[in-house]
Amino acid sequence: MSSRSAPSSIFLLSRVFLPFALGYYLSYLLRTVNAVISPDLTRELGLSAADLGLLTSTYFFAFGLAQIPVGIALDRYGPRRVEAGLLLITALGGVLFATGESLPTLAGARGLIGLGVAACLMAGLKGFTQWFPREKMASMTGYIMASGALGAVTASAPLEAALPFIGWRGAFWMVAALAAGIAALIFFAMPEKDDSTHGGDLQHALRGVQEVLSAGRFWSFSGQAAFFTGGFMALQGLWAVPWLMQVNGYNRGLAADHLFWLNIGMLAGQLSIGAWATKLATRGITPLRLMQIGLFLTMVVEALIITELGPTIPLWCALGIVSATGAQMYGVVAGLFPLHLSGRVTTSINLMAFIGAFVVQWGLGGLLDGLRGTGGMGAADSLRVAFLILLAAQLASFVPLARAARFKPHGEF
Length: 413
Fold this sequence. Notes:
membrane; transmembrane; globular; Growth Hormone, Chain: A; mainly alpha; MFS_trans_sf; single chain; 413 residues
């Protein structure tokens, strides 16, 4: 379709938003699936806490390594070809995970999955900058993040209910088929924007990356990306269930119910942002301000969870709601740079998030093993210490975020 004609809402919904939303749905489902299947993996493979953290975090490691190359590819080749190609790698990773028998094989397969879904959100955000006006970006970010939240919901109580029938291996065979199907949909159904690619050689592309990574305005958001977004992914993707089982004393079914409500809260938060962000901005509550308020409340809710003050299901649901505001970071940071750098900006900030997720997810596992082994601490107390350390890191990263209003969007003076 030519960019000279105005696309209809049905066109934008069915051929731009929906394919990207399905890709991010799958990405988030795979990001969080190990939280529910972790007891099965531990029992079947005899994994320690550090082994489990490493197995789960290889997704984040591979995802993070891919971010800068993915950003360059999105700006050079467009989101349609990049995301469709990478999702075929996801399908391969799903097959290998479904058939794996050892920790190295499963870790490698999960790394392939992380690589394969590395463009799912970033391709969507890149596509939205091409097809939607800037004032709609906060809402579109909320809606695609809601699609991811729906994937996380699927990977909680619904997956727990299905596991007795399909097993964790059967679940990954379904993942492989779904990834291949979404790849085909994206490649054959999604339109190509006339100006969807940006020319220049690799050296020129790398100069764009350097421009982003050398900017102080970028680094003001890096700590928040690592310890709020990354920290939330580490809890949601693995450590929430051990906390609920070992600190609160719940069985796996009840822990999965809490994870379900955490993800329902995130879904509700993202849908609310999608519906209200544009209107809120006209009343002075900008996406940056919304993020600052939400992440401050995130720390408050986490403190209540750690101190066990209040009913657990409402607290975990509230954590999902307020943490949803962190996704506005992508649009906020992208708006501080020229449009032709948008792919590299969003993937660079996403790199910070996934470095944080990898460090927190694996680091908590190692810390727990150390506290329980040489430290002689019980499972519940060691988890409390680990969660307190994460909260302290979040508090430190909130300081530069609170001062980020001094940066003006690109083009404003």
